[in-house]
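Section 5.1 Outputs to date
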Amino acid sequence: MADFWVSRTGRWRIRLREESQGETHERLFRVLRDEIEDGRLPPGAIVPPTVRVAEELRIDAAEVGKAFQMLLQEGLLEQRDNGRICVSDASGDATVGDQTQVLFENNLIQAARYATQMGMSTIDATGVFKARMAETKGLREAESSRDSDENGTDD
């Protein structure tokens, strides 16, 4: 689970370096706001813990906390009852749930590790990821079809 957030925070680190105006927390706020507004962080997506983001971005946790607080105040993030922070959804219907996000990111991480071990190019690694997602989708569809057959329903 240590690599769970790496795919997301790596992109944030690059964008944070590109942002040159303002203090660190202001720059991080803009990066995350853009990610949310552009849909790269969809409604319901869980945001990594403050300490994890600070470690991944190599910045002070207080700066991350300030950026998260700004996003919470703007209504772009919300804190769940369990204390986790996720992307808000004005309609109340999250499009990405915890299980979907975990599945997606686990497949991405596994594909990246496999590609690295095999010395594959980025393009080949993308193909491995797409294949893993297609395999997962096929398994889910087969399971759904089996459940429908067992229940006597036809979709």
